[in-house]
Structures are given as structure tokens and as C-alpha cells.
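We close this part of the discussion by returning to an individual protein. The amino acid sequence and the C-alpha cells for this protein are reproduced below:
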Amino acid sequence: MRKMLEPPLARAAALRASDEDLTSLEAILERQAERIRAGEIAIAEDNAFHYRIATAAKNQVVLRVMDVVMELLQDSRARSLQGPGRAEKSLGGHRRILSAIRDRDPDAAAEAVRRHIEEIEQVLFSRGPGARGGARATSTAGA
């Protein structure tokens, strides 16, 4: 679901984001980095980042859909941010997304989100200790 929804939102955000949207996205990433440095899981910041991209896309219908999707994926988002280096990897993905949006590059923004979601899928569906298996068709990728 996220692969269908979020790349087009990032594409639209690259074209429509206001200066206020960009400032807000930057502030969210600063808070996320601070939480990671403190050894905390930055779930609220992760959610806020993805939601702000949807806000920057300026599509109220899709924004309401994102409300539902974010709620449904809350557990998988938390799981995806746990584990060694995972939070830093998520932050790196967010930085790539913001860079493309700031550069007003819709193709790069959509690709950065797609890549970010695929990295999350790898974490959620790996067969490592404590990992939950599952078919990609039922993916509920977080972060």
C-alpha cells in the first residue's frame, strides 16, 4: 500500500511544498536525529515526517487516507525502527527524500521514497532472529 501511495505523494510534494513545509520537514529530521543520538526510537518523528510529506502534496483526500494508513501501520513502523543501525538508516532515507523535495526533483523524490520503503521491507521480512516472515504481497512496511 505504501509503495502505491507515498512515491506519488513525494512527487507532488517536490512540486508543491511551501517554504513552511520544507522548514517543518527539516525540523522533524533534526528532532529525529536528536532522539537517535539519545538512544531513543523516534517513532513520533518518523510518523510526522511521512505525514508532513502528505501535507506538502496539498491533496486533502489523500491526506485522510494517510491518517488511516498511518494508524494501521503503527506496529510495523515501530518494529522497523528497532535493531542495530535501523534508526540511522531510516534517518538517512528521510534525508534523501527531503533533499529531493528541496531540490524540486519529483522523480528523485518518488525514487527516494520507493527505495526507503523497500529498505524497510527488507528489515521487516528478513529471516534474522526474531524476524517475522511473511509474503511481500501482505507487506505492512513501516518507517
Q: What stands out?
A: DSSP finds seven helices and no strands in the chain. The chain has one domain: 2-138. The longest helix spans residues 19-37. Residues 99 and 138 are 30 Å apart (CA to CA).
